[in-house]
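Write out the 3D structure for:
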Amino acid sequence: MHATTCTRNPVPALRRSGWILIALLGWSGASGAQTPTADDKLDTLLVKQQELLDRQINETQGQLDTLLAKQQLLLEGQERIEREVVPQDPFPNGARGFAFNLPLLIASTASTTRMISASLFWFPPHSQLELVVPIWIRTMNEHPEFRGTLVDLQGRYYFSPKRSGFYWLAGLRQAWLSGTTEGRFDDLTYVEGERTSFSKSGVYGGVGFRANSNRFYWNCNVAFGRYFGGISTEMRNAGMIGEDFLLDAELFKFGLIF
């Protein structure tokens, strides 16, 4: 009796093992492609952090730009308010000039009296003061021997820092007069007056108004005071200069500032 031996074919088993191995390898590769590594996560985190930082920088820069723009508007508004509301001195470094009363000279040509009124002035820097040297000269056509000269040293204090508008004034005056005394009768004989001259000093105070327009201005003032010294009541045609009482008034004095 012969024993029968069954032998299995190993090829199908190998084939099945190969397919299983291939399937396992494929699944492992797929799983490795889908799962990020630590470096990939770190790069992603750094990118997101940089984007957040850039966004914060842009927002902060925008806020700073807005704040600076508002601050500039506030400064411009403040400067405008200071120019329009707070008076500014138009001559912070000082100024000089002269003035002349042309209407007075023209009006005096219609009479026998000639009057000239002029002045020099100086604005000190950073001040509400004005220093003025007014000069008056009076002559008469019918009496050429008569001549009156007045020279003042005057100070003015303006109510406004713009050195325009109303102001107080105070001054010292020196007057020189030359002419003849009044004639007189001596034993029914008329005796002509004699040539004479004298000088006198005075003090006064008053108020005035000044209007500036660029480099030109108009000024008017009135002042009261009195003279000291000198006997002038006997001088012919001395007028108010011959009195002890001092009264001055000017309405149309125009000047140039330089």
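The CA atoms of residues 168 and 245 lie 20 Å apart.
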